[in-house]
Inverse folding.
């Protein structure tokens, strides 16, 4: 009886103590559930990693194969680029100066065509 009388006379402090006890209980419960959640997450991640390992290995092998093919392609492309540059430079060396007249060939052009055709043309005065 004296405890009930003490509680009834100190209602404010009794309420504060009850609320503090509830607060401590809730904190303990949240920490406990948070630990359980962390443990479950670690276990789940372990199972996921174990399940995904074959796929990651296959992806790694595919990436290595793609890198090898890419290196071969770049080597072939470099050889083609060098050949293309050589042909381009040779063609550019043939055309030395543009001629803007009605005749298609100048004297140098006619002699080059005649040499290519095997015709020897001598000019008569």
């Amino acid at each position: 009886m004296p405890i009930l009388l003490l509680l009834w006379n100190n209602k404010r402090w009794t309420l504060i103590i009850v609320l503090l006890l509830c607060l401590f209980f809730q904190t303990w419960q949240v920490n406990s559930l948070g630990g359980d959640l962390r443990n479950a997450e670690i276990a789940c991640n372990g199972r996921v990693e174990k399940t995904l390992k074959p796929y990651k290995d296959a992806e790694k092998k595919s990436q290595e194969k793609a890198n090898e093919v890419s290196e071969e392609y770049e080597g072939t492309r470099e050889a083609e680029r060098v050949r293309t540059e050589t042909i381009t430079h040779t063609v550019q060396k043939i055309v030395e100066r543009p001629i803007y007249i009605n005749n298609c060939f100048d004297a140098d052009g006619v002699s080059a065509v005649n040499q290519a055709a095997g015709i020897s043309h001598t000019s008569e005065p």
In short: The chain is about 80% helix and 0% strand. The first helix runs from residue 2 to 9. The chain has one domain: 10-97.
